[in-house]
Amino acid sequence: MLLRRLGVWLIMSVVLFFTISVLVFVLVSLTPGDAARAIVGPTASAERYEQVRAELGLDLPVWAQYGRWFAALLQGDLGNSIVSGVPVTQVLADRLEPTLALMGGTFVCASVLGIVLGVIGASRPGAVGKAADVGSVLGAAVPNFWIGLVLAALFAVQLRWLPTSGYAPLVDGVGPWLQHLILPIATLTIGGTALLAKQTRDAVAEQLTQPYIVLLRAHGVSERRILWRHALRGAAIPIVTILGMKMIGLTSGTVLVESVFVIPGFAGYSVNATLLHDLPVVQAITLIFTIVIIVTNLAVELLYSRLNVKEAS
User: Looking at the structure, do residues 40 and 103 belong to the same domain, yes or no?
Assistant: First the structure.
């Protein structure tokens, strides 16, 4: 049964990747901007402009450009940046660490904080539960970029505790690296934590009303053990669903935050690449984010299967 589900997932993943790559290629080609004009400048002659377009293959129909890109991809070649001429792998390699650090740090912080607050809210209904509901609404309603601007104005400009922008590579030291990540990660964590806390509270609260919880209490099992081991495990499926959605949402949420805090990641860089019609770079970033989405969905499916087996046993 599991192998069959994995086979269906694999087929759907291939279709998803192909569909997304085609849509992105077509939509980017329709956006205002011209890579050839950006290279030659506004004062170049028409002959020079057409020559550069031909050299870059931009004079070909969109479907022909996509075919060339996809054929190169099958050979493991992501191509060169149209604007800079540098291999796409080199362009993105320099920007991979900031994006991975931002996404990974946000996912860990939001997951731990959201689950802890949700479990506490379920065990202490009333003011704590209502605070989680209010926080989830505010966290979902307030845009990330606004939260980032407020945090930067308070902790970086007024208090001067943290840097306002930029990124320090991990090789420069753990201290500077963490200082530059605190505000961006906090910005992305606030909204995700509130939503996860509410869903966790509701799921755990429902588990606490089940008959097996009454039986455990009758056998003298401690309330802490019931809460953190049994009730939380029973509520794992909806929590895993939210965690998967959170990870997928980070592929788009990092774009604005990287722009606000001037982090040199490839999520924010994709905006400039799109405006310049740098299709190889845009497609490579799309490929990476699509892989993240596919792997996340696979992890969620495997966790579902494992949790269902535990429940059945």
Answer: no
36 in Cβ contact with 56 (< 8 Å) = yes
**Cα–Cα distance, 108 to 194 (Å, whole number):** 14
pLDDT tier, 308 (very low <50, low <70, confident <90, very high otherwise): low
Q: Which residues of 226-260 are buried (b: 16+ CB within 10 A; e: fewer)?
A: bbbebbbebbbeebbebbbbbbbebbebbbbbbbb
Residues 274 and 134 in one domain: yes
Could you say which DSSP state residue 165 is in? Answer: S
Domain assignment present for residue 83? The answer is: no
Question: How many whole angstroms separate alpha carbon 241 and alpha carbon 254?
Answer: 20
Q: Decide if 102 is inside a domain.
A: yes
Amino acid identity, position 293: I
Write out the H or E segment, with its range, that includes residue 305. helix 279-312
Alpha-carbon gap, residue 137 to 50, rounded angstroms: 53
What is the rounded distance in angstroms from the CA atom of residue 129 to the CA atom of residue 195?
A: 13
pLDDT by residue (tens digit) across 30-76? 777 677 777 777 777 888 888 888 877 778 888 888 888 888 888 87
Looking at residue 80, the DSSP 8-state letter turns out to be B
Examine the domain organization and report whether 159 and 190 are in the same domain: yes
Both 167 and 283 in a single domain?
yes
Count of C-beta atoms within a 10 Å radius of residue 59? 14
Place of tokens 């308070």: 154
Domain limits at 160? 96-312
Tokens representing 40 are 């030659």
Above 50 in pLDDT, residue 312? no
| Residue with tokens 């901007």, as numbered in its chain | 33
Question: Which CATH number goes with the domain that contains 273?
Answer: 1.10.3720.10
- Number of independent structural domains in the chain: 2
